Amino acid sequence: MTTAANPLHTLLGGTRGALESALPSVIFVTVYLLTDSDLRVGLGAALLTAAVLAAARLIRREKPVRVIGGLAAVAIAAVVAARTGDAVDYFLPSLLANIASALIWAASILARWPLLGVTLGFALRQKTSWRQDPDLMRAYSRASWIWAASFVVRAAVNTPLYLTDNLVGLGISRVLLGWPMVLAVIAASWWVIKRSLPADHPGILTPRVPRTA
Predict the structure, then answer these.
(1) Where does the pLDDT of residue 5 fall: very low under 50, low under 70, confident under 90, or very high at 90 and above?
(2) What pLDDT, on a 0 to 100 scale, did the predictor assign at position 193?
(3) Residues ≥6 apart with Cβ < 8 Å to 157
(4) What does the alpha-carbon distance between residue 113 and residue 107 come to, in Å, rounded to a whole number?
(5) Of 10, 47, 190, 178, residue with least CA distance to 116
(6) pLDDT exceeds 50 at position 213
(7) Region label for 7, one of left (φ > 0), alpha (ψ between -120 and 50) or beta (otherwise)
(8) What long-range pairs does 95-104 form, CB within 8 A, spacing at least 24?
(9) How many whole angstroms from its chain centre is CA 39?
(10) S-S: 67 plus which of 14, 57, 142, 171, CB 3.0-4.6 Å?
(11) What is the helix (H) or strand (E) element at residue 161, kind and residue range?
(12) What secondary structure does DSSP assign to 97-156, as a single string?
């Protein structure tokens, strides 16, 4: 099962993807502070950084949805901050996204459609066959709670920082709760999956699908 860990890591963009997702925020905070709180310059620097990263992803022939998603996230954050005139509002969309993600992941588990299973099912080209395997259903459900919890942690840390206008804290949080947490969550969820599957299970690459008569 060790080789099966790669699809999830690759789908999320790996360490590079997680680092790149935090870079525009770091650039924004740094430039904003160095330019004596010039919001326009800070937002422009963040957008420029996002555009360069998007171009690099296109050169690497990454999936268009990832390229557009990364650029759109920064653009939305910049628009919100520009409209309110408050630098900390740059982080408001991601804060709301974390809260929504926690609820969506929890709801998917309760609805017996754990998002980790959905994600891996399509990444491994299994579609929904994994849902017919009770062992995989249980493993994916347990591991999905780790992902839900990670969004709760981010929201719990960032909410007080946002409410107290702690821009530097939000920037640091974006880095520390970015790629280090992503890698930790991937490792933890994979450990849970392996611990949850019985010893005789062939692994996630081979769901046990009941044969039809």
Answers:
(1) very low
(2) 92
(3) 173, 177
(4) 8
(5) 190
(6) no
(7) alpha
(8) 95/155, 95/158, 95/159, 95/162, 98/151, 98/152, 98/154, 98/155, 98/158, 99/151, 99/155, 101/148, 101/151, 102/148, 102/149, 102/151, 102/152, 102/155
(9) 26
(10) 57
(11) helix 134-163
(12) HHHHHHHHHHHHHHTT--HHHHHHHHHTT-TTGGGG-HHHHHHHHHHHHHHHHHHHHHHH
- Which residue reads 């929201």 in tokens? 155
Q: Identify the DSSP state of 13.
A: T
Tokens of 192: 């849970």
**Is a pLDDT exceeding 80 seen at residue 17?**
no
Q: Token digits for 26?
A: 């770091």
Quick one: average pLDDT of 189-199?
A: 92
76: Cβ contacts below 8 Å, ≥ 6 apart: 93
pLDDT in tens, 53-82: 888 888 888 777 777 888 999 999 999 999
Residue 3 has pLDDT above 60, yes or no: no
The predicted-structure confidence for 138-152, as pLDDT tens digits, reads as follows: 999 999 999 999 999
Q: Please give the pLDDT value at position 16.
A: 63
